Amino acid sequence: MAVTIRDVARAAGVHVSTVSRTFSAPNLVKVDTRERVLAAAAELGYRPNQAARALTTGVTHNLGLIVADIANPFFPPLIKSAQSYARVRGYQVFVADTDEDPRAEEELISILAKQVDGVVLVSPRLSNAAIAGLSADLPFVVVNRNVKGLPAVLMDIGSGAATAVEHLAGLGHRRLMLLGGPRGSWTSEQMRRSAAAAAERSGVSLEITGPNAPTERGGRLAAAAVLEAGATGVIAYNDLMAIGTIEGLSGSGVEVPREVSVVGVDDTVAGRVARPKLTTIAMPTQEAGRSAVDLLLHAIDMPGGRGAAKTTLETSLVVRESTAPPPPLK
Question: Which residue numbers delimit the HTH lacI-type domain (predicted)?
Fold first, then answer.
């Protein structure tokens, strides 16, 4: 038989309400009484019902984690890291996928708000104003979006994009193309700005296309634009797009990297096992998951002074087989 709160009250010689207060509001119970209740609970193996406690305290010990596309290999390492860290801190994580749809994102936030103590929003597609409005009554942390007044974990993709441009320029490429991501993507905008500035510094041309679907199919479709522009160096919004671009180019008889070099973003398993193995900008996804949960729990613990702490994580270029010097001019 499961141990109940009444069993603990009987063993400790107190009223049931005292046991309840010991677990929900321990500061309201005398120290000696609280210690007696906790000792009895430990001896009997009693575990308080979290759902029942949530009804009286408003604390669920649940967190929401909303991602743009759970099928994208960028997100699972971040999700796993966030879940593991939250569990160590005594929290469980509800994961939801918006399928890149800002309307679904808004709906999910509204639903989860009734069941969690705070939300981590990863690569959101909603506007900053909409996110700020939804976060008015619930602690929020955003990943890869800089929203005024909200804590954020930012991966320095701007620096990564600039490094990718410099890498291609250093190999001798003079006509580059940046395949932008979906509409509303903070990452895509940071890439666009930094890549354009790096191209100007390096003395190379850069054409930017987008918005594009951040998928393998999106990359295959974008391959036609690469061919039309005569670009010999390509930087894609993510690894999936980069792999799709390589497929699209191959289907048109263009070899990577002998004729066109391609750089991805994320450093996912898919890019590591692709042929050719993908040169990519490594994103610190696991560290981002832990940092986001840490910021969120701090915001939950200090509801009156959450502030807008920002954590910026470094990115790095991983050079593999999909980049090489351009073919000689004919």
Answer: 3-57
Residue 57 has pLDDT above 70, yes or no: no
Kindly list the structural domains of the chain, giving each domain's residue range(s) and its CATH number in brackets, ordered by start: 5-54 (1.10.260.40), 62-155+285-312 (3.40.50.2300), 157-283 (3.40.50.2300)
3-state secondary structure (DSSP) of residue 44: helix
CA distance 325 to 259: 9
Strands 152-155 and 140-143: parallel
Length of the chain: 330
Phi-psi region of 230 (alpha: psi -120 to 50; beta: other; left: phi over 0): left
CA dist 60 and 55 (Å) reads 8
Mean pLDDT of 101-124: 90
Pull the structure tokens for residue 276.
Answer: 């050719």
Lowest mean pLDDT among 10-19, 154-163, 198-207: 10-19
Q: What share of the chain is helix, strand, coil (3-state, %, to 5)?
A: 50, 15, 35
Whole-structure pTM value: 0.81
Inter-axis angle of helices 239-251 and 216-229, to 10 degrees?
Answer: 60
